[in-house]
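anyone seen this seq b4? input:
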Amino acid sequence: MFDIVVFLSLITLGYIFGRIAETRHFKSIALREQQLRSILCFSERLPPPLSEPVETTLVAGNVVISVDYFKRIAASLRSLIGGRVTAYETLIERARREAILRMKQEASNLGATTVCNVKLETASITKGKKQQIGSVEVYAYGTALIPTQS
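predicted toks r here
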């Protein structure tokens, strides 16, 4: 009986603190997206027609986000009946948005106004027992267009 109480207490603490951390991260992402909204991102290979000369350079953003213990258990329980695994969906959403934000921040530091040919690469890392996902890495990259002073 004592083991069950300890297990449930740890699950509850994992849920509470994981939820708090995720909420803080989403708020931080929303704030930084507002600050960097002037930098346009396109997935098209070629840039839009421009009236001024630009320099180009590669910009990138990388992030690794770990799965908390509660989400791993929730995903395992969900795999019993099938369907959407929302616990992992929020994890991937956070990672993608954070990687794009870091790429945009690098573009902003270079004075770029647009990033085109934006691509995202995703990988799962730190697989544990039974090939469970431990962390997810997202790498965002693209071509920054920096207006030249002519």
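The two ends are 76 Å apart (CA to CA). The chain is about 50% helix and 25% strand. kinda curious what u guys think
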